[in-house]
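Researcher: Here's the sequence for the chain we discussed earlier.
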Amino acid sequence: MNVESTTAPAPNVTGTPGSTNGKLIGFFILIAVVSAVNYAGNYSVKTSKKDTEEALFHYSTAVGAVVVYAFILGIVLWIARDRRDLLAWRPPRNGWLRSLGLALATLIVAGLVISLVDSVMHGGREQGVVPPHWLPGHAGAYAVNWIVVAGVAPFVEETTYRGLGYSLLVRWGIAAAILTTGVAFALSHGLLRALPELCIFGFALAWLRSRVDSVFPGMLVHCGFNSFALATVFWH
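Model: Thanks. This is the structure I predict for it:
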């Protein structure tokens, strides 16, 4: 994807440079905290492989995730408080039909590239969230966790990175916004082997954001990607 070929205009960032810089500092502090907590949780806290693999079969996992995402979204809304346009909660600039076509292309291309990288890096194994087998007695909990992983997570993460983050960074150029938010998105997951795959996905979503000037198509791509991953439990 040629990040320089897009013609999407930079968002109309009004207000004093100081206020915008303050929001950007707040964004980076949030990402640093989330990244540190996730890296500590993934590599400092000892959790059995069985507990990790079966996490999505428990309602408590969904409840905990919703609390965390609500906290993150609250911070993002506070940072953007007087500039809600920075969140890019608006209809796609080129209309829904064209934007959905771009979203589908993004999902397919990013999915294929990530699959190739995963065959070498095995980043999906590191995260280990998708269960290796199905537990019929826990279908309700898995369904609730599916809603969180494929619904709540894409909404909050797209608002955070491709909304607030992209809008604050695009004044330094589209390429800078795509690369910076992509890396920030990857780091915030607190994983090492999966970092290249997460970067690729973050770059793809930010590229899509640059073309449609909205976070909604990216939310759909994110939802589709996560849903496909969760569905793999049925054919393991």
